[in-house]
From TrEMBL:
The lineage of its organism: Bacteria, Pseudomonadati, Pseudomonadota, Betaproteobacteria, Neisseriales. Pfam families: tRNA-synt_1b. Gene3D superfamilies: HUPs, Tyrosyl-Transfer RNA Synthetase. This is Tryptophan--tRNA ligase. It catalyses: tRNA(Trp) + L-tryptophan + ATP = L-tryptophyl-tRNA(Trp) + AMP + diphosphate + H(+). Its EC number is 6.1.1.2. GO terms for cellular component: cytoplasm. The gene is trpS. Belongs to the class-I aminoacyl-tRNA synthetase family. It is an enzyme of class 6 (ligase). The keyword Aminoacyl-tRNA synthetase applies. One of its GO terms (biological process) is tryptophanyl-tRNA aminoacylation. GO terms for molecular function: ATP binding; tryptophan-tRNA ligase activity. Keywords: Aminoacyl-tRNA synthetase, ATP-binding, Ligase, Nucleotide-binding, Protein biosynthesis.
Length: 346
C-alpha cells in the first residue's frame, strides 16, 4: 500500500485496544478477566479487538492450520458472548501488515535483556517448560511484548483492558513510546493506561494456578452441561473441611472464587461464606450452587456460538471488514512514525 498524504490523526478521548493470541477457544478465565469488560466498553468507547494470529505462531511453530482454526474459534467466542462488530472493530493481526512493520522499528528501541526481564514473558516461559533453557525459545515469542506495543500504538490505544499478569506488558509499551518520542523530539505516539477487571486472576479448576489451556485446568465457554458438572465436581474447596459441621476456609477455596466471579447474588454468596466459615454447610451445597450459576451462564453462550458457527463465511466477512477498518488507522499512525524517522525517500 502506498503511503497516504500527510494527515493529522485525530484520536478520540479514549480508544480501547485489546485482544487475544489465537491459541485455541476461550475459557471462563478470559470471560472474567477481559470479555465482560469489553462488553461494557463497546457501548462507551471506540474499541479494537485483535485476533493475534501472528503472535500465536510462536506458540504453534509450524502448525499453521491450528492458528487458522483458532482465529475462527476465538471470533466465534467473541460473537457468542455478545461482542458486537457494529460497536467493536474485530481484526486479524496478520491482515494489518503495518503492525508488523511498526513492530520491526520498535525492536530497535528495546534490548534483549529488557525483554528477558519482562515478568510476563518469564512467567509464560516457565509455563511452557522453557525455564533454564530460555535460549531455545522462538525469537518471536521473546519479542511479543514489542509486537503488542506496536498493536496498541498503531491503533492509537489509550485504555487497555488486561489481567494483572499483563501489567508489565503495558509498562514496557509505555517505555517504548517514551523512548521513541524522545528520539524523534515529538509526541508522535500515545502512552496508554491499563484497566483491570474486578476478577484479575481466576484460578483453574485444580486450584494450583490461574486458569489456562496450557495447564489443562480450564473450562471453555462452549463447554457442555456434563463438562461443566464434571469440572465443578473436581474443584478444590478446603482440605480441612472434613465434615459438614466443621468450619471451612473461604480464602483459596476455588468454588467461592468462582462464585465471587460469576454469581450475581452477592448477598447470597456472602451468606454462604459466613455459614461455611462458621460450620454447618457442606461442599456439595456450594458446588451445587456454582453448577447452577455456570450452567445458566454458559448455556446461552454455547447455543449462540453454535448458531454463528453455521455460517463461517459470514464470520470471515466480518473479520475482513474489521481488519480493513483497523488498517486505515494503522496506516496513518505508521505514516506519522516514518515521517518522524525520516524514512520516506521519494
Amino acid at each position: 500500500m502506498s503511503h497516504p498524504n500527510n494527515q493529522t490523526i485525530a484520536a478520540p478521548q479514549t480508544i480501547v485496544v485489546t485482544g487475544d493470541r489465537t491459541t485455541g477457544p476461550l475459557h471462563l478465565g478470559h470471560f472474567a478477566g477481559s470479555l465482560q469488560t469489553r462488553l461494557q466498553l463497546q457501548n462507551r468507547h471506540e474499541q479494537f479487538i485483535l485476533l493475534a494470529d501472528t503472535q500465536a505462531l510462536a506458540d504453534h511453530q509450524g502448525d499453521y492450520s491450528k492458528v487458522r482454526q483458532s482465529v475462527i474459534d476465538v471470533a466465534l467466542d467473541y460473537l457468542a458472548v455478545g461482542i458486537d462488530p457494529k460497536k467493536s472493530t474485530i481484526l486479524i493481526q496478520s491482515m494489518v501488515p503495518e503492525l508488523a512493520e511498526l513492530s520491526f522499528y520498535m525492536m530497535n528501541l528495546v534490548s534483549v535483556a529488557r525483554l528477558e526481564r519482562n515478568p510476563t514473558v518469564k512467567s509464560e516461559l516457565r509455563g511452557k517448560g522453557y525455564e533454564g533453557q530460555e535460549r531455545e525459545v522462538a525469537a518471536g515469542f521473546l519479542t511479543y511484548p514489542v509486537s503488542q506495543a506496536a498493536d496498541i500504538t498503531a491503533l492509537r490505544g489509550t485504555l487497555i483492558p488486561v489481567g494483572a499478569d499483563q501489567l508489565p506488558m503495558i509498562e514496557q509499551t509505555n517505555e517504548i513510546v517514551r523512548r521513541f518520542n524522545r528520539m524523534v523530539g515529538d509526541n508522535i505516539l500515545h502512552e496508554c493506561q491499563a484497566l483491570l477487571s474486578n476478577t484479575t486472576r481466576l484460578p483453574g479448576i485444580d486450584g494450583k494456578s490461574k486458569m489456562s489451556r496450557a495447564a489443562g485446568n480450564h473450562l471453555s465457554l462452549s463447554a457442555s452441561s456434563d463438562e461443566i458438572s464434571a469440572a465443578v465436581h473436581k474443584m478444590y474447596t478446603d482440605a480441612n473441611h472434613l465434615t459438614v459441621g466443621s468450619p471451612g476456609q473461604v480464602e483459596g477455596n476455588v468454588v467461592f472464587s468462582f462464585l465471587d466471579a460469576f454469581d450475581s447474588d452477592v448477598a447470597k454468596v456472602a451468606e454462604l461464606k459466613a455459614q461455611y466459615q462458621h460450620g454447618g454447610l457442606g461442599d456439595s451445597v456450594i458446588k451445587a450452587r456454582l453448577n447452577d450459576v455456570l450452567q445458566a451462564l454458559i448455556a446461552p453462550i454455547r447455543e449462540r456460538r453454535a448458531q454463528f458457527a453455521q455460517d463461517p463465511d459470514a464470520v470471515l466477512s466480518m473479520l475482513l471488514c474489521g481488519s480493513a477498518k483497523a488498517r486505515q488507522t494503522a496506516v496513518l499512525t505508521l505514516h506519522k512514525v516514518k515521517t518522524a524517522m525520516g524514512m520516506y525517500y521519494f
